[in-house]
Protein backbone atom coordinates (compact mmCIF):
# COMPACT_ATOMS: atom_id res chain seq x y z
CA UNK A 1 0.00 0.00 0.00
CA UNK A 2 1.37 3.41 -0.97
CA UNK A 3 1.76 6.17 1.60
CA UNK A 4 -0.89 8.20 -0.23
CA UNK A 5 -3.38 5.35 -0.08
CA UNK A 6 -2.55 4.71 3.57
CA UNK A 7 -3.17 8.36 4.43
CA UNK A 8 -6.43 8.29 2.52
CA UNK A 9 -7.65 5.26 4.47
CA UNK A 10 -6.62 6.83 7.78
CA UNK A 11 -8.50 9.99 6.86
CA UNK A 12 -11.56 7.96 5.87
CA UNK A 13 -11.50 6.10 9.18
CA UNK A 14 -11.07 9.34 11.11
CA UNK A 15 -14.18 10.69 9.39
CA UNK A 16 -16.26 7.63 10.25
CA UNK A 17 -15.06 7.50 13.86
CA UNK A 18 -15.77 11.21 14.34
CA UNK A 19 -19.18 10.90 12.70
CA UNK A 20 -20.04 7.91 14.88
CA UNK A 21 -19.31 9.86 18.05
CA UNK A 22 -21.38 12.80 16.84
CA UNK A 23 -24.35 10.88 15.44
CA UNK A 24 -24.69 8.55 18.43
CA UNK A 25 -24.58 11.41 20.94
CA UNK A 26 -26.70 13.97 19.08
CA UNK A 27 -29.73 14.14 16.82
CA UNK A 28 -28.92 13.72 13.14
CA UNK A 29 -30.46 17.08 12.27
CA UNK A 30 -28.12 19.01 14.56
CA UNK A 31 -24.95 17.36 13.24
CA UNK A 32 -23.68 19.25 10.20
CA UNK A 33 -20.92 18.29 7.78
CA UNK A 34 -18.78 21.09 9.22
CA UNK A 35 -19.05 19.49 12.68
CA UNK A 36 -17.83 16.17 11.28
CA UNK A 37 -14.98 17.81 9.40
CA UNK A 38 -13.87 19.72 12.50
CA UNK A 39 -13.98 16.59 14.65
CA UNK A 40 -11.96 14.65 12.06
CA UNK A 41 -9.42 17.45 11.73
CA UNK A 42 -10.00 18.03 8.02
CA UNK A 43 -11.52 20.72 5.84
CA UNK A 44 -15.18 20.46 4.92
CA UNK A 45 -14.23 20.40 1.22
CA UNK A 46 -12.14 17.29 1.89
CA UNK A 47 -15.06 15.69 3.70
CA UNK A 48 -17.34 16.28 0.72
CA UNK A 49 -14.81 14.55 -1.55
CA UNK A 50 -15.22 11.44 0.57
CA UNK A 51 -18.94 11.82 1.21
CA UNK A 52 -20.93 14.15 -1.09
CA UNK A 53 -24.01 13.84 1.15
CA UNK A 54 -24.57 13.60 4.90
CA UNK A 55 -26.79 10.55 4.32
CA UNK A 56 -23.75 8.66 3.01
CA UNK A 57 -21.84 9.40 6.22
CA UNK A 58 -24.80 8.10 8.24
CA UNK A 59 -24.80 4.89 6.17
CA UNK A 60 -21.05 4.48 6.72
CA UNK A 61 -21.53 4.82 10.49
CA UNK A 62 -24.30 2.21 10.43
CA UNK A 63 -22.01 -0.13 8.47
CA UNK A 64 -19.22 0.35 11.00
CA UNK A 65 -21.50 -0.41 13.95
CA UNK A 66 -22.92 -3.49 12.25
CA UNK A 67 -19.43 -4.65 11.22
CA UNK A 68 -18.44 -4.72 14.88
CA UNK A 69 -21.54 -6.80 15.55
CA UNK A 70 -20.48 -9.16 12.76
CA UNK A 71 -17.10 -9.52 14.45
CA UNK A 72 -18.87 -10.76 17.58
CA UNK A 73 -20.81 -13.35 15.57
CA UNK A 74 -17.64 -14.64 13.93
CA UNK A 75 -15.98 -14.89 17.35
CA UNK A 76 -18.89 -16.72 18.99
CA UNK A 77 -19.20 -19.10 16.04
CA UNK A 78 -15.54 -20.10 16.46
CA UNK A 79 -15.80 -20.79 20.20
CA UNK A 80 -15.94 -24.35 21.51
CA UNK A 81 -19.44 -24.05 22.93
CA UNK A 82 -22.66 -25.93 22.38
CA UNK A 83 -25.18 -24.48 19.96
CA UNK A 84 -27.41 -23.57 22.89
CA UNK A 85 -24.58 -21.72 24.64
CA UNK A 86 -23.81 -19.79 21.46
CA UNK A 87 -27.44 -18.76 21.04
CA UNK A 88 -27.57 -17.66 24.67
CA UNK A 89 -24.41 -15.60 24.10
CA UNK A 90 -26.18 -13.88 21.21
CA UNK A 91 -29.05 -12.92 23.50
CA UNK A 92 -26.55 -11.49 25.99
CA UNK A 93 -24.89 -9.54 23.17
CA UNK A 94 -28.26 -8.11 22.16
CA UNK A 95 -28.80 -6.69 25.64
CA UNK A 96 -28.76 -3.01 24.70
CA UNK A 97 -28.91 -1.75 28.28
CA UNK A 98 -25.34 -2.59 29.31
CA UNK A 99 -23.66 0.83 29.11
CA UNK A 100 -24.57 4.36 27.99
CA UNK A 101 -22.47 3.91 24.83
CA UNK A 102 -24.30 0.70 23.91
CA UNK A 103 -27.63 2.43 24.49
CA UNK A 104 -26.57 5.30 22.22
CA UNK A 105 -25.51 2.87 19.49
CA UNK A 106 -28.82 1.01 19.80
CA UNK A 107 -30.73 4.27 19.41
CA UNK A 108 -28.75 5.10 16.27
CA UNK A 109 -29.35 1.71 14.63
CA UNK A 110 -33.03 1.79 15.54
CA UNK A 111 -33.45 5.16 13.89
CA UNK A 112 -31.37 4.10 10.90
CA UNK A 113 -33.46 0.99 10.28
CA UNK A 114 -36.67 2.97 10.68
CA UNK A 115 -35.65 5.73 8.27
CA UNK A 116 -33.40 4.03 5.73
CA UNK A 117 -36.25 3.98 3.23
CA UNK A 118 -36.12 7.79 3.11
CA UNK A 119 -32.62 7.71 1.62
CA UNK A 120 -32.57 8.01 -2.17
CA UNK A 121 -31.57 4.70 -3.82
CA UNK A 122 -30.98 3.21 -0.36
CA UNK A 123 -30.72 -0.38 -1.63
CA UNK A 124 -27.60 0.57 -3.59
CA UNK A 125 -26.23 3.16 -1.16
CA UNK A 126 -26.55 0.79 1.82
CA UNK A 127 -25.75 -2.44 -0.05
CA UNK A 128 -22.86 -3.24 2.29
CA UNK A 129 -25.11 -2.80 5.33
CA UNK A 130 -27.60 -5.30 3.97
CA UNK A 131 -24.81 -7.74 3.08
CA UNK A 132 -23.53 -7.65 6.66
CA UNK A 133 -27.03 -8.36 7.94
CA UNK A 134 -27.30 -11.33 5.60
CA UNK A 135 -23.92 -12.63 6.76
CA UNK A 136 -25.03 -12.43 10.40
CA UNK A 137 -28.20 -14.37 9.54
CA UNK A 138 -26.13 -17.09 7.84
CA UNK A 139 -23.93 -17.44 10.93
CA UNK A 140 -26.98 -17.75 13.18
CA UNK A 141 -28.42 -20.45 10.93
CA UNK A 142 -25.11 -22.33 11.06
CA UNK A 143 -25.11 -22.12 14.86
CA UNK A 144 -28.67 -23.46 15.03
CA UNK A 145 -27.66 -26.40 12.83
CA UNK A 146 -24.66 -27.02 15.10
CA UNK A 147 -26.96 -26.99 18.13
CA UNK A 148 -29.33 -29.46 16.55
CA UNK A 149 -26.40 -31.69 15.62
CA UNK A 150 -24.91 -31.64 19.14
CA UNK A 151 -28.34 -32.12 20.73
CA UNK A 152 -28.34 -28.88 22.71
CA UNK A 153 -31.15 -27.32 20.63
CA UNK A 154 -34.56 -28.77 19.75
CA UNK A 155 -34.98 -30.73 16.55
CA UNK A 156 -37.46 -29.97 13.79
CA UNK A 157 -37.59 -27.92 10.61
CA UNK A 158 -39.49 -25.08 12.28
CA UNK A 159 -36.86 -24.54 14.98
CA UNK A 160 -34.64 -22.49 12.66
CA UNK A 161 -37.40 -19.96 11.96
CA UNK A 162 -38.42 -19.95 15.61
CA UNK A 163 -34.93 -19.11 16.85
CA UNK A 164 -34.40 -16.47 14.16
CA UNK A 165 -37.69 -14.90 15.24
CA UNK A 166 -36.68 -15.02 18.90
CA UNK A 167 -33.36 -13.30 18.19
CA UNK A 168 -34.94 -10.64 15.99
CA UNK A 169 -37.71 -9.95 18.50
CA UNK A 170 -35.30 -9.82 21.42
CA UNK A 171 -33.01 -7.45 19.54
CA UNK A 172 -35.90 -5.17 18.58
CA UNK A 173 -37.33 -5.24 22.10
CA UNK A 174 -33.93 -4.44 23.62
CA UNK A 175 -33.48 -1.52 21.24
CA UNK A 176 -36.94 -0.15 22.06
CA UNK A 177 -36.18 -0.42 25.77
CA UNK A 178 -32.93 1.45 25.16
CA UNK A 179 -34.90 4.22 23.43
CA UNK A 180 -37.35 4.40 26.35
CA UNK A 181 -34.81 3.84 29.11
CA UNK A 182 -35.07 7.32 30.64
CA UNK A 183 -38.88 7.17 30.70
CA UNK A 184 -39.01 3.64 32.09
CA UNK A 185 -36.74 4.64 34.99
CA UNK A 186 -39.58 6.87 36.21
CA UNK A 187 -42.16 4.10 36.11
CA UNK A 188 -42.94 1.31 38.54
CA UNK A 189 -41.60 -2.21 38.16
CA UNK A 190 -40.81 -4.12 36.10
CA UNK A 191 -38.05 -1.82 34.91
CA UNK A 192 -36.33 -2.17 31.54
CA UNK A 193 -33.68 -4.61 32.75
CA UNK A 194 -36.29 -6.78 34.45
CA UNK A 195 -38.41 -6.87 31.30
CA UNK A 196 -35.41 -7.89 29.21
CA UNK A 197 -34.45 -10.54 31.76
CA UNK A 198 -37.98 -11.98 31.73
CA UNK A 199 -38.05 -12.26 27.92
CA UNK A 200 -34.57 -13.79 27.94
CA UNK A 201 -35.59 -16.40 30.51
CA UNK A 202 -38.74 -17.28 28.55
CA UNK A 203 -36.82 -17.86 25.33
CA UNK A 204 -34.09 -19.87 27.02
CA UNK A 205 -36.69 -22.06 28.75
CA UNK A 206 -38.30 -22.74 25.37
CA UNK A 207 -34.98 -23.74 23.81
CA UNK A 208 -34.15 -26.05 26.70
CA UNK A 209 -37.31 -27.93 25.77
What do you see in this structure?
- With 209 residues, the protein is an all-alpha fold.
- It folds into two domains: 1-52, Arc Repressor Mutant, subunit A (Orthogonal Bundle), CATH 1.10.10.60; 55-208, Orthogonal Bundle (Tetracycline Repressor, domain 2), CATH 1.10.357.
- 77% of the residues lie in helices and 0% in strands.
- It is built from eleven helices and no strands.
- The chain has helices at 3-25, 33-40, 44-50, 54-78, 83-93, 100-115, 122-125, 127-150, 158-179, 181-184, 192-208.
- The chain starts with a helix and ends with a helix.
Number of helices: 11
CATH class of the largest domain: Mainly Alpha
Number of strands: 0
Inertia-based shape: globular
Indicate the low-confidence ranges by residue numbers. Answer: none
Reading the helices and strands in chain order gives HHHHHHHHHHH
Number of domains: 2
CATH superfamily of the largest domain: Tetracycline Repressor, domain 2
Tell me the fraction of residues in β-strands, as a range: under 5%
Pfam family, one: TetR_N
Domain HTH tetR-type: 9-69
GO molecular function, one term: transcription cis-regulatory region binding
DNA-binding region: 32-51
Attribute tags:
mainly alpha; 2 domains; 0% strand; globular; TetR/AcrR family transcriptional regulator
Concise account of the structure shown:
The chain has 209 residues and is mainly alpha-helical. The protein has helices at 3-25, 33-40, 44-50, 54-78, 83-93, 100-115, 122-125, 127-150, 158-179, 181-184, 192-208. α4 (54-78) runs parallel beside α8 and α5 (83-93) runs antiparallel to α8 (127-150).
Amino acid sequence: MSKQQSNREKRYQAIIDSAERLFTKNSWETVQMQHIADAAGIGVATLFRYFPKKELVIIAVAEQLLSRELGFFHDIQAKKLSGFEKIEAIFHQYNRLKTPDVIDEAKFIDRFDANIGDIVDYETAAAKYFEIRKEIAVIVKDIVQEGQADGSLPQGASVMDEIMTMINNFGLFARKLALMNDILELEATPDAKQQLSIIHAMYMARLRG
